[in-house]
Design goal:
Number of helices: 8
Helix content: 25-40%
CATH class of the largest domain: Alpha Beta
Shape: globular
Structural class: alpha/beta
CATH architecture of the largest domain: 3-Layer(aba) Sandwich
Order of helices and strands: HEHEEHEEHHEHEEEHEH
C-alpha cells in the first residue's frame, strides 16, 4: 500500500496555523497583542520614570532636567499598523536536522503574525532577500489574500545556489530607503552573516519599531556524537571531515557557538532591538508567548 504526501498550499498552511497556533495564542494572550507590538503610536499618553531597557528615543529631556531623573514618554498605539517582514532566504535558511527546516519556521512565523495583524485591519508587506540582493518586494496591503500571497511567494521561492557569506547590510539599507512610514519591522534571519550589519540595524530602529527573529537549529549549537562525518557549510558548500566523537572538538564547537550567541545578543542590545530566538524544535505558540512576556515586563 503506497501513501502520498500532499504538497502544502498557502490555504492549507493558513488553516493549520489558524487551528494549531492562532487559536491557542488568542486563548493565552486573550486577544491583547499590545505586549508584542508597541512603540509605533503617535498620540502622547503619559510620563513615567525611565527603567533599564526602555527606548532612549522616548526620554523627555525637559522633564528629566526638571525632575533630575530620567523620564520617558508613553504613547497610545495607532489603530492601524503597517508591518514589514525582512526575510533572509539565503542558503543557510534551508538547514534543519531534526524536526523541521529553518525556512519552514520562517514561513509559519510570518503567516501567523501577518494573520494576527491583518484580521484587525492592519497592513503587511515583505522584502525577500537572497543573501546579496533584494529578490522581491511585496507592497504592504491588508486582508487575508495578502497573507496568502506572501505565503505563496515564500513556498515558490527557489533554493538559492551556494555563495560567499551572506551580507545583511544591503537588506537593512533597502528597508531604510524604501519603508517611508513608521512601521513595525520584523527581521527574520539566522544571522549567519558577514559583519557590518549592526550599524544599519541601529539606524533602522531609530525610524521604526524593529524586532529581530533569529532562526536556529539545535545541531548548530551542540553536535551529537555520531562518529566521523563530513560537515558542509550551508552558505558556501565547503566541506570538512570531522570526528564528532572527539571530546575536544565537541567542546570547541560548543564554545564557538556560545561565543556567536553572546556576540549576537550584544549586537541586538547595542542596536536597541528586541530579539526572539526561534528554534526549529520549539513550539511556535510557546516561543511567541515567551517573547510577549519579556516585552511586557520591559514595558512596566
Amino acid at each position: 500500500m503506497s501513501t502520498t504526501t500532499s504538497t502544502p498550499t498557502p490555504e492549507r498552511i493558513l488553516q493549520r496555523l489558524d487551528w494549531q497556533v492562532i487559536r491557542r495564542l488568542d486563548g493565552v494572550l486573550q486577544g491583547d497583542y499590545r505586549s508584542l507590538f508597541y512603540g509605533y503610536g503617535v498620540d502622547f499618553a503619559d510620563l513615567r520614570e525611565y527603567q533599564p531597557e526602555d527606548d532612549i528615543r522616548y526620554i523627555d529631556w525637559n522633564v528629566t532636567a526638571r525632575m533630575d531623573t530620567p523620564y520617558v514618554r508613553q504613547y497610545i498605539e495607532d489603530r492601524e499598523i503597517t508591518a514589514w517582514f525582512l526575510l533572509d532566504l539565503s542558503p543557510s535558511i534551508d538547514f534543519g536536522t531534526s524536526v523541521t527546516m529553518k525556512r519552514t519556521m520562517l514561513i509559519d512565523f510570518v503567516a501567523t503574525i501577518a494573520r494576527l495583524l491583518t484580521r484587525h485591519g492592519n497592513r503587511v508587506g515583505a522584502i525577500f532577500y537572497g543573501g546579496s540582493r533584494v529578490e522581491r518586494t511585496i507592497p504592504a496591503r491588508g486582508g487575508r489574500m495578502q497573507v496568502l500571497r506572501i505565503v505563496n511567494d515564500l513556498l515558490n521561492f527557489p533554493l538559492l545556489p551556494r555563495a560567499p557569506f551572506t551580507d545583511l547590510t544591503p537588506l537593512l539599507q533597502s528597508a531604510l530607503h524604501s519603508i517611508k512610514r513608521r512601521s513595525l519591522v520584523f527581521i527574520l534571519s539566522d544571522f549567519i552573516a558577514a559583519l557590518g550589519w549592526e550599524r544599519p540595524l541601529s539606524l533602522l530602529n531609530r525610524k521604526h519599531e524593529v524586532l529581530a527573529v533569529r532562526l536556529w537549529d539545535p545541531r548548530e549549537v551542540d553536535l551529537p556524537d555520531v562518529g566521523p562525518i563530513i560537515m558542509e557549510d550551508a552558505e558556501t558548500g565547503e566541506q570538512l571531515y570531522v570526528d564528532t566523537h572527539n571530546k575536544t572538538f565537541q567542546q570547541q564547537f560548543k564554545a564557538m557557538a556560545q561565543q556567536r550567541e553572546e556576540a549576537l545578543q550584544q549586537a541586538f542590545k547595542r542596536a536597541g532591538v528586541d530579539a526572539l530566538s526561534l528554534s526549529t524544535e520549539e513550539d511556535l505558540v510557546r516561543a511567541i508567548v515567551r517573547f510577549a512576556t519579556i516585552r511586557q515586563s520591559r514595558r512596566r
